[in-house]
Amino acid sequence: MEFNKILLEQINEEFMGCDQTISIAESVTAGAMQLAFSEMTNSKLFYKGGITVHTPDKIVKLLKVEASEIKNSNCVSSLIADKLGLYASTMFESDWCIATSGYCTPERHSVFEIYVYYSILYKRQIVFSDKIEFNNYKNKLSPLSVKLYYTEEILRKFLSQLKLTLILNSRETNDRSTL
Question: What sequence ranges are listed for the domain CinA C-terminal (predicted)?
């Protein structure tokens, strides 16, 4: 398994320039996000940990959602990604959280489509939530390759959100200091 080392180093550098932390909550990426963060040079300084939840019974129990909420979606929805993120950011007391929910193989529940919902949270607020559709599944990529693709795409979006938030926070600080 090979991660984009330049991307990981960029995320590492951004965290080294701020006093913030991150946690991960994942389903479809099945630990790939957690592994990516653990591979960063200074991860012990900002990566608080993660949780992987894969079965409906654990999603109902941990996220305190009604079974009826997830029945029709097979535990895959933007709502589940959001709730996973809220749960993990609270449990790990992190500033940031990335959460995933989706499919890495075509299944009946996904109408034979491959996609991931993901949420990026900052200070327990959803700052970005989206869906990535994987249209290349006809090429018969392995589920691991799909998970790595999701991980890299989500980390790219996370890096953008991290940079944007740090810029906005520094402007707020500068505006307050000039008053």
Answer: 7-137
